[in-house]
Each structure stands twice: as structure tokens, then as C-alpha cells.
Amino acid sequence: MTQAAGTTPPARIVIEELVKTFGGRGRDVPAVENVSFEVRQGEFVALIGPSGCGKSTILNMIAGLIPLTGGRIGIDGHGVTFGKPTPNTGYVFQRDTVYPWRTVKRNIGLGLEIAGRPRAEREAEVDRMIVRAGLSGFENAFPITLSGGMRQRVSLMRTIIMRPEILLMDEPFGALDTHTKLEMHKFLLEIWDEEKQTVLFVTHDLGEALTLSDRIIVLSARPGRVKEIFDVPFPRPRDAVTLRETAEYSALFSRVWHSLGEEFRKTSAEG
User: pLDDT by residue (tens digit) across 60-95?
Assistant: First the structure.
């Protein structure tokens, strides 16, 4: 999708007055309450907030994995339906979802295999993705022999190979150590700079949100509401390491952290 210079990109994801309540053991538990925001074409938006504020729940509703209690989710002007795959959308989960009995090559090519793409075409595309992910030489390796970062690269490339226009990412690097996480930030930014997918990225790591995103949406303590939205003005392309050494990064980190800290204190008081 191309966009004329000087015009505002169209909204790809539109969330309007979204509500989610979970029921159980005779009582309802509100998870998300009256959440509204948009994610525009080619935008990288981070969703951040205290544990239990509904970040992953919002992502799962956008993907059609759980039903809405109220409100509306639109993708390219069409409503999302529970139980039906959301068109043009890929999902990268919190834990790597590689299959231990499939090699790197067969894991990355799984979606193309399910889609019935011809074998020669499928293998050529998988080979390109392996080179792009820096996994050359590991084509026939099984996941148990790979590092956590390598497994996440396999998971990400298995999604990217399907050419989704919208990426939903649920804390995909949360289990990685700091060095590996920074390497994955670099890798993801390189892919995004090339592909320009529309990304909604859930994280609990403010540094990660500042490194990757164009905007940060801060959710309140449960039930999650949009508390504040911050623009992230750092120029692109970004270096995931040197960016964190700048005064501009430190200043914005402090502003967002203050907003987040208020919600963390609410969560602690309730606990």
C-alpha cells in the first residue's frame, strides 16, 4: 500500500470503546474498559502497562482468538469476528512456538506448506528467509539445539514469510536476556524498515517500547483503560544500543515512567 507524500496514512486497526469482562465462579472480572485507539498504516505502536491490565487480551481480541464483551474492532474497515482469522494479520506470541520435531527449515516453511504452495517455490522462499534471519548453516537443526534468540528468529520468520500487512506481537522477547533482546530489537527494526508492516507490540519493557515504536499507549491498572499516549520522535533508522545513550531517550523515558509508575503503585496497593 503506497501513500502520497504529505498525507495522513489510513488507519489499519481501529479500536472503539472496547470492553472485555471475564466471568467465573459467580463473579465478573473486568479486564478492559472503554479502550479506544488507532494504529495507522506502517506505524509501529507499543502497548504498555502494569501486569494484568489487559494488553494481551486486547491483542487476542484483535486476532479473533477471544470474543469482545463490548465495543468494536475494525481492520481496514471490516469488523473482527471471534473464531475467524483476522485478514492480512500475523501473530507472534510471547513464547516461541516452533515445533520441536521440525527442523528450522520446516518450521519456517510451515505456513506455506499449509497454504499448498509448490515445493520448489516454498523452498526458495524459505531459503531466502533463512539467509535474512542469519540462520544459514542451521537449516536442518532442530529447535532444541538453538539459543532462545535463534528460536525467536525462526518464529518471527515463520510469520513474516506469509507477508502479513499487520503484525500483532505479544512480548515476543520477554524471556530473553538483555544482550539477546537488543540483538532481536536490531533484527526486528531491520525487517520493519524493509517491510513497513503495521505493528501493534505488547511489552512490559519501557526501554523496548522506546527503542522500537512510533507511539506508546500507556494502559491503566486493571481494568485497562487508555491513560496516556506518547509520541516517540527519535529519527529512523535507529540503533538499539546507541539510542539509549542519548539525552532525548532519557528524558522521554522519565516522562513515560512517571505515568507508568502511578499505575504500578495502584496495582501494588490493590495486591
Answer: 999 999 999 999 999 999 999 898 888 889 999 887
SS3 166: strand
The H-or-E segment that residue 119 falls in is helix 119-132
* C-alpha cell at position 4: 502520497
Measured between alpha carbons, how far is 70 from 260 in angstroms, rounded to an integer?
26
d(CA 206, CA 49): 9
| Assigned C-alpha cell, 256 | 513515560
- pTM of the predicted model, to two decimals? 0.92
Contacts of 191 (CB under 8 A, 6+ apart): 132, 156, 160
Nearest C-alpha neighbor of 69 from the set 119, 17, 25: 17
**Widest pairwise Cα distance in the chain:** 59
Domain residues for 24? 9-39+52-88+165-172+200-228
Q: What's the sign of the alpha-carbon dihedral 99, 44, 259, 263?
A: negative
3-state helix, strand, coil in the chain (%, to 5): 35, 25, 40
Find the CATH number of the domain harbouring 64.
Answer: 3.40.50.300
Give burial (CB, 10 Å; 0-12/13-18/19+) of 152. Answer: buried
